[in-house]
Task: inverse folding
């Protein structure tokens, strides 16, 4: 690999990191909300469980996750983030089929408040664009293989 190819690869990685910054910001916000919830409930999950809970919510913010519905937990709906975390901590929806059924029940109906600006963290549209870019780059990678 010559130097121009390395520079091109570094620029590509930097662009991807910049595009996916809202997803990383949302991950940090979810982790922070989980810590707060665990403190309130005096619950001490393992690091592995904490990562699983955060990944669960992050997966639900992806509009492409479930067919026929938009993001189950839009990035700006902190109330739904907290509700999902509370339910999962209490042992609700342990297997994939139950999680999908619960996700479909919780999914909000888009309305005027659906795109309200968040109190903190990335907006729904920022996360949506980041996921679209991620899906496009994954599709392009599959085509080139």
Result:
């Amino acid at each position: 690999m010559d130097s121009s190819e390395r520079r091109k690869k570094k620029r590509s990685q930097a662009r991807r990191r910049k595009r996916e910054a809202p997803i990383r910001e949302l991950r940090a916000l979810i982790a922070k909300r989980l810590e707060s919830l665990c403190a309130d409930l005096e619950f001490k999950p393992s690091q592995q469980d904490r990562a699983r809970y955060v990944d669960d919510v992050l997966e639900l913010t992806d509009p492409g996750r479930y067919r026929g519905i938009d993001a189950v937990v839009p990035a700006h709906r902190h109330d739904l983030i907290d509700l999902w975390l509370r339910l999962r901590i209490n042992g609700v929806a342990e297997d994939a089929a139950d999680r999908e059924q619960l996700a479909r029940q919780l999914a909000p109906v888009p309305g005027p408040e659906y795109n309200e600006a968040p109190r903190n963290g990335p907006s729904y549209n920022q996360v949506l664009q980041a996921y679209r870019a991620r899906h496009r780059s994954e599709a392009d990678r599959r085509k080139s293989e």
User: Anything to note?
Assistant: The first helix runs from residue 3 to 19. The chain has one domain: 19-144. The helical segments are 3-19, 21-41, 47-60, 78-89, 96-106, 124-144.
